[in-house]
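note to self: dont lose this again. the chain is below, predicted strucutre after it. 303 aa total, dont forget to put it in the shared folder this time
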Amino acid sequence: MGRQKEWLYTLSRFFQIRNLLLRQALAECLGTLILVMFGCGAVAQLVLSSGTHAMFLTVNFAFGFAATLGILVCGQVSGGHLNPAVTFALCLLGRERWRKFPVYFLFQTIGAFLGAAIIFGMYYDALWDHPGSFNVTGPKATAGIFATYPGKHLTIVNGFFDQIIGTAALIVCILAIVDPHNNAVPPGLEAFTVGFVVLVIGLSMGFNSGYAVNPARDLGPRIFTSIAGWGTSVFTARRGWFLVPIFAPFIGTIIGVMVYQVMVGFHTEGEIRDRKQGTDEENVQLTNVNSNNTTKEITKEMA
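---
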């Protein structure tokens, strides 16, 4: 037992990273990996079993619980963003430094890439056994296991609007959850409430294109599928659809931040600020009164 502790101590010293930003980025990578691994795993079961081992409801529950677990894994280290849109929102509000944004975006994308790779390896034989195993579009397409693709009815413009609204809804809810001046969520339950938000968005907004609302969750697996056998058509399908889940969420983030701040955030923050100013003014007045009384007493003693 003593030797085991020595080995563990040696390993911990060897692998310890002292750069805080890198530690946070690695945590985001792992959290996003968990999100994509469990979420895309549920989609793989639905597609490859032709619906016998899963359904649309189970996919939504899987992504919701996956978001919860991902946040629980990395939340205390990095904040548990798992989504560049969330990082972007916090940077806009000045709660995170802008230098974090590109680093988090990169490592979240890497985590999503690795999560897709794990599911690909797990269901490799099932993919080959599935008709049209490496089709990007069509009734037997499997590329949608990993990245999002629009439904037949969906145009690029409508899809862009779909991603903007979905991301804006996500950001509004997350800002409410983490806002200490609003109806604060009890400590430790933030991950569960965010997972519930993801579940609700999936249940209500998942029909059009699979509710990516997360550039890293879509881009990482898409890059993996282009390497793993689906080819460059994952980027050219439906007139370059892949750009929509990358750029539209950031526009949705800006709208979500503006909506929450204008309708809720600025007012609750203003109340706290006004109370603090009032308290400061009272303290100043009390200090002046005490100073005046002290001066009068000294004057009387001198007289």
